[in-house]
Amino acid sequence: MIRRVSAAAVGAVLVGSLAACGSGGSSDASDDDSITMGFAQVGAESGWRTANTQSIKETAEEEGVTLKFSDAQQKQENQIKAIRSYIQQKVDVIAFSPVVETGWDTVLQEAKRAKIPVILTDRSVDSDDTSLYETFLGSDFVLEGEKAGDWLVENADDADTDKNGTINVVQLEGTTGAAPAIDRAEGFKEKIAADPRIEVTASQTGDFTRDGGKKVMESFLKSQPDIDVVYAHNDDMGLGAIEAIEAAGKKPGTDIKIITVDAVKDGMTALAEGKINFIVECNPLLGPQLMDLAEKVVAGEEVPERVVTEETTFDQEQAKAALPDRQY
Ligand code: AHR
């Protein structure tokens, strides 16, 4: 069980601590000595998010952390409201996955003034003031985009499905302004520059949802005469694109190559079936590392500013091998 230490003990630890990067835990949400965490989740937009929420809830239960959980339905104002409510409730630690990168300084300053430490998880904020949070746990989204771009460059001949010497890519972007949408586009763009045949001919947000991916792909299929590749910023949008491609009488994975990010079970199943060509993994099982960081932060211990999750990639054969043991 993760236990909250008294304010006096935190003070003692902080005196000798080199970190002092923030507020230390001194609030008092409950009468017992367990940690209370306020968690402001993005929403329930994707299979990845469902797995992430489950990991956080299960680990909190296992570790005896009292979890106050809110679902912002992909709206920044809801997340800000949730964070303000956690501040009022004097939780020991606030964790959240910011739906978009900007616009957090005011509410994070409020948390800092209330001496409630904040942990960023999954997505980061774009702020010059890094003292507003203790640490950021999550993936390197630029690297994920780079891995997708590298694969396409390596498989460019095959990706030129109509063999006309151009490789036209349509991009299904994640939520506008979200770190994974910005960074996955950036990493991909950087890598595909190595092959002048590859061009992103259309790019639009599908909001990380299956329905969004399907609708955007339907419109791309009408407006773009020669699509060779779909690059979707997550599996769900890729799965929506598959539905649209099949409805248009084309074969996903063959007539149009598909690259996605996440590697959730549904995505891996489509990859193993040949409907997706390559998936870059993004690990949603952040619960254990998050609770460990929360314990340290509340105890006033030093934590790294950045904790990057380890991830791999899957082609179709690797998906077949990995699927039986896939947890999510
Ligand atoms: O922030 C992680 C991203 O958010 C996942 O890749 C996507 O599926 C989710 O909605």
UniProtKB/TrEMBL annotation:
Key word Iron-sulfur present:
no
One Pfam entry name: Peripla_BP_4
Q: Where is this region: Disordered?
A: 309-328
Task: Give this protein's Gene Ontology molecular function annotations.
Answer: carbohydrate binding
InterPro entries recorded: Peripla_BP_I, SBP_2_dom
PANTHER family (alphabetical): D-ALLOSE-BINDING PERIPLASMIC PROTEIN-RELATED (PTHR46847), GALACTOFURANOSE-BINDING PROTEIN YTFQ (PTHR46847:SF3)
**What keywords is this UniProt entry annotated with?**
Signal
Compartment(s) of residence? Cell envelope
Protein name per its UniProtKB record: ABC transporter substrate-binding protein
Q: Which domain of life is it from?
A: Bacteria
Instruction: Tell me which residues make up the Periplasmic binding protein domain.
Output: 43-302
What family is reported? Belongs to the bacterial solute-binding protein 2 family.
Q: Which positions carry the signal peptide feature in this UniProt record? A: 1-22
One GO cellular component assignment for this chain's record is: cell envelope
Keyword set includes Signal: yes
